[in-house]
């Protein structure tokens, strides 16, 4: 990864921050995108610099069309090229029964989890074609495998669309050596889980007990798979969707 450039969206969160540190530790120059968590992003940047890494912060709300259109070009203006794009930013905007879900929440969920990765990938694609190749890694969810829940249909539907986008881009990108893959995250132990409506430690333990490996994943489990796919080890892999979910 020495000298490679990587843009990670949603880099201030648990999985994004872990990926950023791992890539920087392996010599990559890292773009840290964040929306509102400025303090966390600055702390992450400082940690990477302390450890001898190279980074740059990029703030922007991916629900904003102008941010989606400009982020890749901003990154390239700083680093000169884009070797790896990791579409990590994503969230569940509401945990209500699907019968009560309003259209604005549905739209926001798709805007962040599908539309943003699509337009970022589209713009990165043009730069990667001129460079002679690149990697795009989409962060999906194991909920796609089961169709989601009554309070999470909109999120799993968006991630299913992201999986489909992965396969389509991979086919188009193959002739340009642009490799596109997705990682379906299982139950990962990050602070995000505590912000889910109705969350309790008991319910979390019950969910973890359903995982064949009998433990929740850690952000490093996802980060290592992303590093593998972005490295030379992943040079003959494209159009694949990997479950990193403890057997779920």
Secondary structure layout:
Blueprint: E1 5-8, H1 14-25, E2 29-34, H2 38-50, E3 54-59, H3 65-79, E4 84-87, H4 103-131, E5 134-141, H5 143-146, H6 153-173, E6 178-185, H7 201-209, H8 219-230, E7 241-244
Parallel strand pairs: 1-2, 1-4, 2-3, 4-5, 5-6, 6-7
What does this structure look like?
The chain is an alpha/beta fold. It has a single domain (5-244), classed as 3-Layer(aba) Sandwich (Rossmann fold). It contains eight helices and seven strands. The protein has helices at 14-25, 38-50, 65-79, 103-131, 143-146, 153-173, 201-209, 219-230; strands spanning 5-8, 29-34, 54-59, 84-87, 134-141, 178-185, 241-244. A seven-stranded parallel beta sheet has the order 3-2-1-4-5-6-7, with helices on both faces. Strand 2 (29-34), helix 2 (38-50) and strand 3 (54-59) form a beta-alpha-beta unit. The mean pLDDT is 94.
CATH architecture identity: 3-Layer(aba) Sandwich
| Strand segment tally | 7
How much is the radius of gyration in Å? 17 Å
The overall pLDDT, averaged over residues, is 94
H/E element sequence: EHEHEHEHEHHEHHE
As for the CATH topology, it is Rossmann fold
The main sheet orders its strands as: 3-2-1-4-5-6-7
* Outline: globular
Tell me the count of domains.
1
Strand content: 15-25%
Overall SS class:
alpha/beta
H/I helix tally:
8
Portion of residues within helices: 40-55%
CATH superfamily: NAD(P)-binding Rossmann-like Domain
Oligomer designation? single chain
Unreliable stretches: none
């Amino acid at each position: 990864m020495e000298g490679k450039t990587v843009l990670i969206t949603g880099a201030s969160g648990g999985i994004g921050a872990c990926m950023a540190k791992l890539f920087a530790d392996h010599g990559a120059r890292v773009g840290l995108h964040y929306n509102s968590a400025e303090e966390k992003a600055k702390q992450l940047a400082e940690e990477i610099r302390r450890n001898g890494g190279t980074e740059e912060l990029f703030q922007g709300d991916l629900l904003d069309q102008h941010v989606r259109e400009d982020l890749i070009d901003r990154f390239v203006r700083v680093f000169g090229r884009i070797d790896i794009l990791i579409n990590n930013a994503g969230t569940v905007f509401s945990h209500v029964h699907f019968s009560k879900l309003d259209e604005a929440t549905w739209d926001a969920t798709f805007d962040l989890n599908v539309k943003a990765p699509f337009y970022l990938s589209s713009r990165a694609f043009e730069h990667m074609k001129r460079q002679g190749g690149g990697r795009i890694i989409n962060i999906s969810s194991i909920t796609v495998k089961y169709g989601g829940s009554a309070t999470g249909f909109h999120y799993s539907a968006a991630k299913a669309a992201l999986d489909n986008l992965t396969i389509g881009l991979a086919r188009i990108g193959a002739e340009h050596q642009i490799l596109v893959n997705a990682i379906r995250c299982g139950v990962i132990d990050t602070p995000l889980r505590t912000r889910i409506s109705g969350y309790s430690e008991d319910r979390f333990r019950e969910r973890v007990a359903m995982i064949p490996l009998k433990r929740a994943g850690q952000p490093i489990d996802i980060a290592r798979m992303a590093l593998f796919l972005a490295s030379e080890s992943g040079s003959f892999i494209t159009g694949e969707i990997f479950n990193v979910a403890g057997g779920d």
